[in-house]
Amino acid sequence: MSSSSSAAARRGWMVAASVGVVEALKDQGANKLSSSSSALVSSKLRDEKVKQSEESLRKVMYLSFWGPN
User: Looking at residues 59-67, what average pLDDT do you find?
Assistant: First the structure.
């Protein structure tokens, strides 16, 4: 094998490795995005549940104070 074909082969492997790294980083970025979006959804659900609980407590307090005796 001549030195020029060996250098070309090395460059080819370097390009392939670089593309692999870039693709892996893209996948990692997508995973972070999906986990952050699921965290956002989870946070919104938690907020909604807290609001419902507060509303229920308000209703109980109101009825216990103003309700029929």
Answer: 88
